[in-house]
Amino acid sequence: MIIEIVMPKMGESITEGTILEWRKKVGEFVEKDELFLEIGTDKVDSEIPCVESGTIIEILAEVNEVVEVGKTIAKIDTGDSSEGKKNTPDPIDLEKGSNKELQEKEQIEIESSASQKKDLSSKSIPQSSNNFITRAVMKVAREKNISIDELNQIEGTGRKGRVTKKDVLNYVKSSVDIAKPSTEKKSQSQTFVTATHSVEMDNMRKIIADHMKKSLDTAAHVHVVNEVNMSHIANYIEENDSSFSRDEGFRLTFTPFILDAVIKALKEFPEMNASINNTAITYHKNINLGIAVAVDEGLMVPVMFSCEEKNFLGLCRGLNDIASRARNKEINPDELSGSTFSISNFGVFDVTIGTPIINQPNVGILGVGAVKKRAVVIENSEGDSIGIQSMMNLSLGFDHRLIDGSGGAKFINAIKKHIESTNLKNLY
Q1: For position 8, what pLDDT does the model report?
Q2: Distance between CA atoms of 250 and 322, rounded to whole angstroms?
Q3: N or C: which end of the chain has fewer CB within 10 A?
Q4: Do 209 and 150 share a domain, yes or no?
Q5: 0.70 exceeded by pTM
Q6: Same domain, 162 and 213
Q7: In angstroms, rounded to a whole number, what is the distance separating the alpha carbons of residues 244 and 105?
Q8: Domain carrying residue 164
Q9: pLDDT for 202
Q10: What is the C-alpha to C-alpha distance for residues 116 and 377, in angstroms, rounded to an integer?
Q11: Looking at 159, 174, 189, which one is the last position of a domain?
């Protein structure tokens, strides 16, 4: 039986996806639940399992092609599993048999093309005697000036250990500052040549770049900064972290204290919990906090929904949950949209101050710096004194189309007040 594989719906707000990689080719057998396709959306990249076992008989969407949700991207002949395998020639047999002429033709074309390019090596890259190298891999190798000896040393991740295009690009990426011989006449002074290369952005980096550029083009960014005394909270964490970790299974950090203060301030200043669409202002009933999380590929901003309903312990658990799932690539695409205010904690990277870009369509974002001990003036009824305190910088980015300077100043001061006056008794 022939079944159609369609572009899956990755979330309620997702209408299309980009084909990033086919891990199976036409004629190859794929098992049910085997990861055979990688799809990228404007929210997240996902590995897709096959819904049925069978042989791929047609691929209708090429790599990097944008496809609407529900559109057919491939066809699979399910048949009988054993029969499907029996009737499908092994890829190795295809290469040695019926595909032999095609390989020879491709090799001739490759050698002809290489001989015409004077800026490359005088010798074309030959076909490896140990492993079949595809035309795409050979092309990349020529472009990156990789010799056949280097190519044979690259560990392949493809079927039966074959070297893929991605393997070659990763090899180039890992080869830093390799000197290349100069083909031009050297001057009297010593000439140093350093290898350079360029690679295409991965899908997540493209999404981040596009999102950030659109935000700068849309919002009228303004930033204000204030410092907060975190000494009482720092002392509380030091005294209670061990018992908290034992009970909850994760560490107690400064972040939930900041989230709690932000929620209280947003209730006082509803204009900061809003969004702008052209000239229309939407004031949101719920407080949905977007939390920036650094992942291996870049940055994700999963959302904690209805934070106004959570107590302090709920904030701790919710924060740990979305951060863990984001790093483990377990976030649902629908959890990456719908924020009403965002928080970026660059303090975890030991940075004291920054000016974050607003996460559209929010009108505000809070940047959180590292907590550092330093000498500060302490004011009290007995007079001023100098003491060592745990201090933190907060930076508020806001959209001047809606929020004026006075409104931004009042809001960040409200956050400061709520943090410094946090009632630590019976906190959870």
Answers
A1: 86
A2: 13
A3: N
A4: no
A5: no
A6: no
A7: 67
A8: 108-174
A9: 79
A10: 74
A11: 174
User: Looking at the domain assignment, is residue 196 inside a domain?
Assistant: no
Residue pair 170/195 in contact (Cβ under 8 Å)? The answer is no
The reply to whether 212 and 319 lie within a common domain is yes
Q: How far is CA 103 from the centre of its chain?
A: 38
Residue with tokens 């090596």: 121
- What's phi and psi for 419, nearest 5 deg? -65, -50
Q: What single letter denotes the amino acid at residue 276?
A: I
Which residue positions in the chain have pLDDT lower than 70?
Answer: 12-13, 42-43, 80-136, 158-160, 175-195
For residue 344, which of 335, 354, 334, 336 has the smallest C-alpha distance? 354
pLDDT of residue 395: 98
Question: CB-hemisphere CA count at 13 Å for 225?
Answer: 9
298: tokens are 């870049």
Residues 230, 378, single domain; the answer is: yes
Number of domains into which the chain is organized: 3
132 with 234, same domain? no
Catalytic residues: 400, 404
pLDDT tens by residue, 65-79: 888 888 999 999 988
Sign of the C-alpha dihedral computed for residues 146, 149, 152 and 155 taken in this order: negative
Please check whether residue 387 is in contact with residue 374, taking contact to mean a CB–CB distance below 8 angstroms: no
Question: What letter does residue 362 receive in the DSSP assignment?
Answer: B
222 occurs within a structural domain: yes
* Inter-residue contact 116 to 54 (CB < 8 Å): no
Report the distance separating Cα 110 and Cα 107, nearest Å. 5
Pairing of the two strands 341-345 and 364-368: parallel
198/143 Cα distance (integer angstroms) = 11
